[in-house]
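Case 184 in the screening queue. Each case pairs one protein sequence with one candidate compound; here the compound is 4G8. For every case the pipeline is the same: read the inputs, emit a complex structure as tokens, and attach any notable structural observations.

Predict complex for case 184.
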Amino acid sequence: VLPVNTIETGLPKDWEVRHSQSKNLPYYFNSATKTSCWEPPSGTDVDKLKIYMAKFHSSPAQKQQQQPQGKIRCAHLLVKHNQSRRPSSWRSSNITRTKEEARQILEGIKKSMELESESEPISLGKLARTESDCSSARTEGDLGYFGRGEMQKEFEDAAFALKPGEISGIVDTASGLHLIERLE
Ligand SMILES: O=C(O)CN(Cc1ccccc1)C(=O)c1nc(-c2ccccc2)[nH]c1C(=O)O
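Case 184 output:
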């Protein structure tokens, strides 16, 4: 098991996140200098800290407050094919690729994202802007918050099975084939 301090907090060396019971708020503590402060110290990678805090430090109340009751937020990349219910999109008025070709495209996109992970990982949203056949391409595939009963069943089941930050396998709906990333 990884010792705690190797989990990416984004904080500089010797700094850790602690929780103030009295104020029910997180604070930052430097175990070398024994100093503490309410704000992250300079040199903090705030993006990493934000993800760390969402995963390990938001209380149930904050979790609930973060997102509407029982809803999640996802981005997706849709590749349509000639069996899609509406085989047209902003990208192409008449989509003729086969379902198999659509699958190959998504396999390639998923692989390119896994390869990128060494350097700056490219996000699903950035790729959705140019590659997605969904009108949500213009918002980097972000669908906003949704609860159960709002999306096609296959899409909903795949999305709710994800943890925040996770990306689905290829999901097959009447609209086409999707990759889904759970954002919240
Ligand atoms: O399935 C259909 O008969 C037509 N649709 C549904 C649709 C059409 C326009 C806007 C939103 C949904 C789509 O093909 C479609 N589905 C989606 C979709 C599917 C699952 C989750 C999010 C979006 N986007 C689109 C789109 O054109 O932009």
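Case 184 observations:
- Residues 76, 78, 85-86, 89, 134-135, 143, 151-152, 155, 173-175 surround 4G8 (CB under 6 Å).
- The first strand starts at residue 15 and ends at 20.
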